[in-house]
């Protein structure tokens, strides 16, 4: 897949045609998820697909924006075993599945939910794994292109992700990336010298709830540290999904331009001067 093109041409769709996604495409997405690179390879996940009308009725009131469900012809559910990084992994894998769907011409939208156990119950899912992602799939009811970055009311089901990536609504590289310690802004020239400008440029395009772009990076020699504006990070599903998505966008560009990326989550023993309202999520050795 041409990940760069797929990222640049990203969009989130809320209004779908009634046309169901072809079985062959759903099967291809399912196989892709099973075989694709994960954020944490040892986390076991399951994939479930549901047809639209019945699932829409069952999920109404427990998923979507303030209980208003997004109506789509198909839904993808990701289930995961319990793990400290299960939600970040869901963001990473779920967004990779969205890129694959986009490559097949299928539109999508992240959908929030209030209670994963309730989602399992109403859809009749029998599994010891937890619901970690709900994604609507289908074909856009309109070809209208939405300019600008993500604008959402507390969850992805209301997001409008840019088709033509208006960089004016994106934080600059100097604000997003620091060298050696917090506040020491990186320049595009420095990142170009370190062969990291591409990866950070595409990471800028990652969708995030309310377009908050909550991520910041510190480049420390051969290590890139990711910190997220915490807002009670450990208990925030949305922030943790955002973290997984931006780790994918950064990592997948390294994968295709330099080398196989891998994120680590061990506690760092170095003080980078990171403010208290940010949480270190992980690091990538480069």
UniProtKB/TrEMBL annotation:
Database matches in CDD domains: Nitro_FMN_reductase
InterPro entries referenced in this protein's UniProt entry, alphabetically: Nitroreductase-like, TM1586_NiRdase
Record-linked Pfam families: TM1586_NiRdase
GO molecular function per UniProt: oxidoreductase activity
Alphabetical keyword list: Oxidoreductase
SUPFAM superfamilies with a match to the protein in the record: FMN-dependent nitroreductase-like
Statement: the UniProt record of this protein carries the keyword Manganese: no
Transmembrane segments annotated in the record for this chain: none
Superkingdom of origin: Bacteria
Keyword Thylakoid recorded: no
Putative nitroreductase TM1586 domain ranges (all copies): 7-250
Protein family: Belongs to the nitroreductase family.
PANTHER family hit by this protein: NAD(P)H NITROREDUCTASE YDGI-RELATED, NADH DEHYDROGENASE_NAD(P)H NITROREDUCTASE XCC3605-RELATED
Record protein name field: Putative TM nitroreductase
Organism whose genome encodes this protein: Peptostreptococcus russellii
Lineage of origin: Bacteria, Bacillati, Bacillota, Clostridia, Peptostreptococcales
